[in-house]
Design goal:
Elements lengths: L4 E6 L5 H8 L5 E7 L3 H11 L3 E3 L2 H4 L7 E4 L6 H10 L3 E4 L7 H14 L3 E3 L7 H12 L5 E9 L4 H5 L14 H17 L2 E9 L10 E8 L4 E7 L9 E6 L2 E6 L2 E7 L29 H12 L8 H20 L3 E2 L1
Parallel strand pairs: 1-2, 1-4, 2-3, 4-5, 5-6, 7-10
Antiparallel strand pairs: 7-11, 8-9, 8-14, 9-10, 11-12, 12-13
Bound molecules: nicotinamide-adenine-dinucleotide.
Length: 342
């Protein structure tokens, strides 16, 4: 058996399940310790997934010499400080999205972590999804020609109960925003990853339905550095929730992709069909009949492989910050009612 990276999880809430499930699947990493300020949550997680150690203070956990890498699964506005503390303790880091919620904190984390020499990867699991990868590959190959128009429709439903389920949710201080910073960030990352970096944005944000301090709906008009134009529509207040939908129109053809799959794949004068997409099937290491939450299997396996083979993780902090920088520019544009250049 090859080398296995011992893992710690900081924050035992909703998303920690997917990190634990993924560690139950990949063969190059294993769960070793869990930490939550609420001891019962850490205990329950340790029991369910067989973690050897439980901590209620992440700084104590970071002293544990057995741990090589930690997943940061705490409220978004805590990520930066925890990443810096992990790096100072010599631990590699896999940080949940968004990596942080302000420019200053992102600058600070990136500078600190790069100096420290540990590896830091960020979770944008949709980048590993075969249908989105296929679109990215097709754009990069040049077969569709240059991008003309690139749109992301990110229309979700989150109830008031969801927002009430955690003190940090939908607060500027710890969530850093609403429909875009928490939910839409995945699709915004996909859009800029596929279509290129954004030069400027004009946007309008609103809080229409939920009793929250951040936006529940936003629209943004984009100009990409490569000359393409685009739109983002994001909300958490429409019923029913719609599939994430990305539409890329290029000089020679169009691709439309949603959670359902590739909806359109047309190149002028070519009979090229959309590639067949097969979702991988994963089984838990200790129980071959149990299928885990799979979205984090590739990001966790990639992070462990990056550590073992001394290479960069698939999504670096400099990549992960691009979606956050764009969202912050959208907020600024809406506040100041003017176009913002990134
Ligand atoms: N990749 C994805 O698709 C995805 C999905 C959901 C959430 N997330 C991200 O994961 C993060 C957590 O979200 P969530 O929905 O799991 O939140 P959550 O509120 O369910 O869980 C956060 C946990 O962190 C714990 N915590 C708070 N302060 C702590 C501290 N100082 N030390 C240790 N534990 C602490 C809380 O007690 C809680 O159990 C957020 O940044 C969110 O954006 C990502």
């Amino acid at each position: 058996m090859g080398r296995v990276v011992k893992w710690g999880i900081i924050g035992c809430g909703v998303i920690s399940k997917l990190h634990c499930d993924a560690l139950g699947v990949v063969d190059n990493a294993q769960l070793y310790a869990v930490c939550d300020i609420i001891e019962e949550k850490a205990k329950a997680k340790a029991e369910e997934y067989g973690a050897k150690k439980i901590y209620t203070d992440y700084k104590e956990m970071l002293k544990d010499p057995e741990i090589e890498c930690v997943s940061i699964c705490t409220p978004s506005g805590m990520h930066g400080q925890m990443c810096k503390d992990a790096a100072a303790a010599g631990k590699h880091i896999l940080c949940e999205k968004p990596m942080e919620i302000t420019k200053e904190k992102m600058d600070d984390v990136i500078e600190f972590v790069e100096k420290s020499g540990v590896k830091m990867g960020c979770v944008f699991q949709r980048r590993c999804d075969p249908k989105f990868l296929a679109v990215k590959e097709a754009i990069d190959s040049g077969r569709f020609g240059k991008v003309i128009l690139a749109d992301a429709y990110l229309k979700y439903f989150r109830s008031q109960e969801y927002y009430n389920s955690g003190d940090w949710r939908a607060t500027w201080e710890l969530d850093g925003g609403g429909a875009l910073m928490n939910q839409g960030v995945h699709g915004i990352d996909l859009l800029t990853w596929m279509a290129g970096d954004v030069e400027s944005v004009f946007a309008r944000c609103a809080t229409q339905v939920r009793d929250i301090e951040v936006e529940d709906t936003a629209i943004a008009s984009l100009k990409f550095k490569n000359g393409a134009l685009g739109n983002i529509e994001g909300t958490t207040s429409v019923y029913p929730a719609q599939d994430t939908r990305i539409e890329i129109h290029c000089e020679k053809g169009s691709m439309i992709v949603s959670d359902k799959g590739i909806l359109q794949w047309s190149i002028e004068g070519s009979d090229e069909q959309a590639p067949e997409i097969q979702a991988p099937v994963f089984k838990m290491k200790d129980d071959p009949t149990k299928l885990p939450g799979t979205s984090h299997v590739v990001p966790l396996g990639d992070m462990a492989d990056a550590i073992i083979n001394d290479r960069k993780p698939a999504v670096t902090p400099r990549e992960a910050r691009k979606a956050v920088d764009l969202i912050l520019a959208i907020y600024q544009s809406s506040d100041e009612k003017r176009e913002i250049t990134l």
